[in-house]
Design goal:
By secondary structure, the chain is α+β, with helices and mostly antiparallel strands. It is built from 3 helices and 9 strands, in the order ββββββαββααβ.
Length: 123
Amino acid sequence: NDKSITVKMIFSEPKLGNLNGIMAGLNSNVVQATTETGGQTLIVSGAKINVANLLQGQLNGINLTTYDNKTVSWLNPYAFYQRVYNNIKDVSPAPTEEDKALAERMSGTITIRAADCYQIKTK
């Protein structure tokens, strides 16, 4: 039973630390050249949260998927472009250790679950 809500997320606040700049659910594609003859495409597909089980009073089974029911990916475009900058030979100013660490947080996947303290109450 699919009772989904569409989600689009952009995290933009320095207080979020490593999460700052992450986007998910925006239907975005970024092509990253990996060789002279090819490239890798980083895709941030649309995202939906299926809340059917929550509506039925069950905590387990809440899920976050793409419209094709695959794992949702996130992308940090700032980290992506930081990686491009870091790979420029003899660039000035040289990337700092913080810049290099940021570039490693370019993309990943997202899962969701209800918090352990969450309780469903019915009327």
